[in-house]
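Run Helix-turn-helix domain-containing protein through structure prediction, thanks.
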Amino acid sequence: MSHDATNWAIKQRGLKPTTKIVLWHLCDRFNPDYGCFPSQARLAHDCEISRSTLNDHLRQLEAGGLLRRVPRIHPVTKRQMPTRYILGFEPGFTPDDPTPCPETGHGDNDAENPFAGTEDRADEPSSVPEPCLNSGHGKDAGAVSDFDPDPCPEKGQSRVRNPDTNLVREPLSKPVKEEEDAQARDSDFDRFFDELLSALGFAANAMLPAWWQGWPARQHVCRWRDELGLSTDRIIETATETRRDHPNPPDGPKALDRFMERAAQRDALDAANSVKTKRSRKAQGTPPPSPDELAAFYAAKVNSEEYLPPSMISNAMCEAMLARRLVTSDRLRQRGVW
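Sure, done. The structure for Helix-turn-helix domain-containing protein is below.
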């Protein structure tokens, strides 16, 4: 690695975070004597991104004039070797030619590149062969992912997906709607917290005590709402009631826990009494069933085929059904209730 190279990468401004990480790791792999030629697998592993995403950021760096890529092909085996990355701080650096090649879409200015004859290691053969006649690969070809429809027979088709034609898009880390809702909730809670402090007797612009500063105090107030089930209006109402017996503001949210718990208990008791009152009113408004209705109800049970417990019908009810000729004695014996 080279400290001068990594310092140069850090000083570059206006880059996206991931793009700058790619540039930094390229500079981290730079050797002052031999240059920079990490494999794409190694570079993608260092940056913790996919190879297709890596090629996107490499194109952005190359378009921004911060590096130039020089592909290398072994002259004997015709296999692709790790790309040589010429970084912008190296002496004699010239950006890639923006004029695209008609075959591959990449620039072709090797003739103007002062590194054209020195991009390989000292112990490796020259890596700038003539281009393939079928696809044009071998002379300043682009990233591995930008493969031609008719690949070079020696190199084969790239195994990296083309991000420009990939139909799968990574979802947003946080949907915009949810983020806007979260911001709105934070704004509403800030207004509620200010109203609570005002109800407790704190001035609008006064310096708050340490017990009421920071997120611990706000989180404690949130527990009154989430755990005790108190509404924001109920919390402010209870806080206002505490000022009647305690003219000075409380030392912190914990001093109000007892009052908030009592308010929650009163609300629960009032809710239970309200339910009982509604049930009582409903029961009072409905008259009890008449003897004829009761006899008809139990007779329907006896005459049906559904399960009938023997203790469900009393002897008095059996006599009432027989008197009204709703059932027969044989049916009662058959059902086991007589």
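Residues 291-335 form one domain.
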